[in-house]
């Protein structure tokens, strides 16, 4: 995928206008994104804070030093030098183009103030120390120097760069989709292996019209007496009672136990309208849950807080419910 690199150009603007235009043209021809101080005409401390953010977004820092030190901040340091120091502090790759013979620079483009001249010389020494620099003599030298220096920097110090959004969509997203597909295939294979290891032979399990004996307690309204009950019911009966309610998640303790207990005692002749509370013994209720899970009829999940359990029919449970609880057509002969 082709990348575009953003390059921050730093120099004194007034004496290097032509040179900067040459450099910007070269960068544009290299399909790079040039940016720099001339885009921000208000050279002040507040503006400099914004310029630092622009430098943060750039991939390379290009400094061009000619014959002037440039406009200075309140502490006497030029904005060009402040930009340079910030870029160095950020660890950016620096491309430095330094005029090789400042003595021959025309008077109109050189520093006449002695103090500023000393600062310029010190800045040149700073930039030239500890890194390779390229010397230039006239504006015509810069395009070739910039092209060679930037190509070398991209090769030796590759940056993140920028890409068009549609390129990302067309290439990187397709790569991500491919990686996700591979991961999905891997997880599917792992799940298949897991299921094969822990599959349960339901042929040996009690189900359908086979019987389970349940017991529990109930309390009649307006009476303090708690009564015990014991009844036999089939697994088909359990599914027919609970199934329609388990098409959505149901709370294990609040709904399901009470629902099945009331249905059981009602089926055995007790008027549930007179019952204040009714429940199945906890041990037997857990047995019912485990059996329905083993048969693959229900899914049991904890709440988000992990403080309660909820039941819901699986697809297999729905199919079994429709088979056992739906109304069959009357045979007409």
Instruction: Name the structural class.
Output: alpha/beta
Query: What is the end-to-end distance?
Result: 75 Å
Order of helices and strands: EHEHEHEHEHHEEHEHEHEEH
CATH architecture of the largest domain: 3-Layer(aba) Sandwich
Largest sheet: 5 strands, parallel
Q: Let me know the average pLDDT.
A: 83
- What is the approximate shape? rod-shaped
CATH superfamily name of the largest domain?
Answer: Toll/interleukin-1 receptor homology (TIR) domain
Flag low-confidence runs: none
Q: How big a fraction of the residues is strand?
A: 15-25%
CATH fold annotation of the largest domain: Rossmann fold
Number of strands: 11
Task: Provide the domain count.
Answer: 2
* Percent range of helical residues: 40-55%
Q: If you compute it from the alpha carbons, what radius of gyration comes out, rounded to the nearest whole angstrom? A: 41 Å
Number of helices: 10
Strand order of the largest sheet: 2-1-3-4-5
CATH class of the largest domain: Alpha Beta
Brief account:
The chain is α/β, with parallel strands linked by helices. It is built from 10 helices and 11 strands.
Q: How are the elements arranged and paired?
A:
Elements: E1 6-10, H1 17-29, E2 33-36, H2 45-57, E3 60-65, H3 79-89, E4 93-99, H4 114-128, E5 134-136, H5 142-156, H6 165-198, E6 211-220, E7 226-234, H7 235-242, E8 250-251, H8 252-267, E9 275-280, H9 282-294, E10 298-302, E11 309-313, H10 315-325
Parallel strand pairs: 1-2, 1-3, 3-4, 4-5
Antiparallel strand pairs: 6-7, 6-9, 8-11, 10-11
Helix pairs in contact: 1-5, 2-3
């Amino acid at each position: 995928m082709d990348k575009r690199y953003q390059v921050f150009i730093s120099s004194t603007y007034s004496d290097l206008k032509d040179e900067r235009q040459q450099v910007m043209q070269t960068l544009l021809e290299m399909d790079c994104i040039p940016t720099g101080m001339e885009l921000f005409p208000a050279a002040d401390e507040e503006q400099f804070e914004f310029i630092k953010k622009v430098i943060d977004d750039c991939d390379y820092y290009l400094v061009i030093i000619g014959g002037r030190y440039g406009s200075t901040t309140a502490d006497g340091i030029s904005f060009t030098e402040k930009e340079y120091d910030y870029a160095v502090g950020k660890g950016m790759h620096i491309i430095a183009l330094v005029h090789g013979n400042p003595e021959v620079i025309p008077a109109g483009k050189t520093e006449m103030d002695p103090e500023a001249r000393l600062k310029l010389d010190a800045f040149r020494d700073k930039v030239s120390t500890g890194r390779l620099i390229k010397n230039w003599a006239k504006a015509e030298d810069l395009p070739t120097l910039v092209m060679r220096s930037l190509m070398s920097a991209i090769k030796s110090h590759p940056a993140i760069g920028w890409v068009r959004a549609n390129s990302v969509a067309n290439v990187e997203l397709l790569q991500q989709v491919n990686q996700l597909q591979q991961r999905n295939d891997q997880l599917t294979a792992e799940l298949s292996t897991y299921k094969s290891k822990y599959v349960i032979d339901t042929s040996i399990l009690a189900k359908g019209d086979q019987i389970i004996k349940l017991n529990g307690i109930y309390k009649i309204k307006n009476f303090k007496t708690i009564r015990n009950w014991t009844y036999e019911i089939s697994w088909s009966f359990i599914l027919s009672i609970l199934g329609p309610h388990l098409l959505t998640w149901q709370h294990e303790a609040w709904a399901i136990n009470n629902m099945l207990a009331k249905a059981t005692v009602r089926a055995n002749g007790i008027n549930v309208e007179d019952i204040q509370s009714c429940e199945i013994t906890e041990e037997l209720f857990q047995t019912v849950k485990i059996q329905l899970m083993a048969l693959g009829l229900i899914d049991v999940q904890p709440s988000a807080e992990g403080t309660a359990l909820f039941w819901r029919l699986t697809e297999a449970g729905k199919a079994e419910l429709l088979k056992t609880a739906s109304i069959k057509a009357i045979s007409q002969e």
